[in-house]
């Protein structure tokens, strides 16, 4: 008797369990169908954010690292210090070369002053030579007339003529000396311009060395969170080398979802989006479509597919869709770049 009651109870429970399971399957199927009808969805989506690389502007050995993995930093905080000795020596050399260039100016100014005085002396000599030449020319003309009147001897006239030639030669020599002196003064002045240009070059080189010394201290460009430490103290780094990645806390995050090309036919900018993040399964995030990629994701690969070569196999392509998160910033702070997400785009039908 008890066995019959037990069997009936088991049958009854089995029947109710089967009916419940059947109803659950029907509800799940209906929900899945309705969701598929009203939404376009994909699980090929991730949270994204701007990661700014921290690069070295100068090379050298790392003296000290001031951050740890995943550390929060403020703008201006020192991240890495590079050995500065070599750059200090280069600065000293540039400073000495600049002083040497400046020292040339007083010497050149003294040479110019001396040359100006020499020119004044030569000009005075030119004036005296010209006066003697005029006097000798008059003497020559007078003896020439006397010789024509046979009032003087030929020998006397020849002596006067020779004196005139000597005086002319002396005058021309003095004029040539004046031209040479003036040309040399011009050279000094041109040389001054060259020295001044050299000083500007040396000043620029010194400023560059001072800039390189400042570059040996690498600081955070903005408030954010540093990533994994990939360098060690004593390591030799090169200019342009990436030392770390910094996530800007002030910049917004977004979702990059890759939809099938057959799903995006009715997508529009500003269309509402519902987002589920795997890390927070019990929460929903909201957003809107911000932009659609002009090409499929495969076109950005290192070797884009070329269907004109070899056998063609049609593969449904994915279109990257950028989705703007519209929740409060406080809610979005928990999201990290790279988190997986499921995205649902409401159809506008």
How would you characterize the overall build of this protein?
The protein is α+β, with helices and mostly antiparallel strands and 349 residues long. It has three domains: 38-50 and 250-346, Efflux pump adaptor protein, beta barrel domain (Elongation Factor Tu (Ef-tu), domain 3, Beta Barrel), CATH 2.40.30; 53-76 and 217-247, RNA polymerase II/Efflux pump adaptor protein, barrel-sandwich hybrid domain (OB fold (Dihydrolipoamide Acetyltransferase, E2P)), CATH 2.40.50.100; 85-214, Helix Hairpins, CATH 1.10.287. The chain has helices at 2-38, 85-148, 154-215, 329-332; strands at residues 39-48, 51-55, 60-65, 72-73, 78-82, 217-219, 224-226, 236-237, 242-248, 254-260, 272-277, 280-292, 318-325, 340-346. The chain is rod-shaped, with a radius of gyration of 47 Å.
Helices, strands, pairings?
Layout: H1 2-38, E1 39-48, E2 51-55, E3 60-65, E4 72-73, E5 78-82, H2 85-148, H3 154-215, E6 217-219, E7 224-226, E8 236-237, E9 242-248, E10 254-260, E11 272-277, E12 280-292, E13 318-325, H4 329-332, E14 340-346
Antiparallel strand pairs: 1-10, 1-14, 2-9, 3-5, 3-8, 4-7, 5-6, 7-9, 10-13, 11-12, 11-14, 12-13
Helix pairs in contact: 2-3
Oligomer: single chain
Uncertain residue ranges: none
Q: At the fourth CATH level, what is the homologous superfamily of the largest domain?
A: Helix Hairpins
CATH architecture of the largest domain: Orthogonal Bundle
Largest sheet: 6 strands, antiparallel, barrel
- Mean of all residue-level pLDDT scores: 85
Strand order of the largest sheet: 1-10-13-12-11-14
The count of strands amounts to 14
């Amino acid at each position: 008797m008890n066995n019959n009651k037990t069997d009936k109870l088991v049958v009854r429970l089995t029947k109710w369990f089967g009916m419940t399971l059947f109803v659950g399957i029907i509800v799940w199927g209906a929900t899945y169908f309705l969701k598929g009808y009203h939404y376009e969805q994909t699980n090929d989506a991730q949270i994204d954010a701007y990661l700014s690389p921290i690069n070295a502007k100068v090379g050298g050995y790392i003296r000290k690292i001031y951050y740890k993995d995943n550390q929060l930093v403020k703008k201006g905080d020192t991240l890495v210090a590079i050995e500065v000795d070599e750059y200090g020596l280069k600065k000293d050399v540039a400073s000495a070369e600049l002083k040497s260039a400046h020292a040339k100016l007083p010497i050149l100014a003294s040479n110019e002053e001396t040359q100006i005085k020499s020119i004044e002396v030569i000009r005075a000599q030119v004036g005296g030579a010209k006066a003697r030449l005029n006097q000798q020319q008059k003497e020559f003309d007078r003896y020439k007339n006397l010789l024509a009147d046979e009032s003087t001897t030929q020998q006397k006239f020849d002596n006067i003529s020779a004196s005139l030639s000597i005086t002319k030669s002396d005058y021309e020599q003095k004029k040539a000396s004046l031209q040479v002196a003036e040309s040399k003064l011009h050279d000094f002045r041109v040389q001054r311009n060259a020295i001044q240009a050299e000083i500007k070059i040396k000043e620029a080189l010194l400023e560059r060395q001072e800039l390189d010394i400042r570059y040996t201290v690498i600081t955070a460009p903005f408030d954010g969170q540093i990533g994994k430490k990939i360098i060690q103290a004593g390591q030799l780094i090169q200019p342009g080398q990436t030392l770390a990645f910094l996530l800007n806390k002030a910049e917004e995050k977004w979702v990059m979802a890759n939809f099938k090309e057959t799903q995006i036919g009715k997508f529009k900018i500003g269309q509402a989006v519902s987002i589920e993040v795997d890390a927070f399964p019990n929460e929903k995030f909201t957003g809107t479509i911000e932009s659609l990629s002009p090409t499929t994701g495969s076109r950005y690969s290192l070797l884009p597919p070329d269907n004109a070569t070899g056998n063609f196999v049609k593969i449904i392509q994915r279109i990257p869709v950028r989705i703007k998160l519209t929740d409060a910033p406080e809610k979005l702070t928990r999201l990290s770049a790279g988190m997986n997400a499921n995205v649902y785009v409401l159809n506008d039908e």
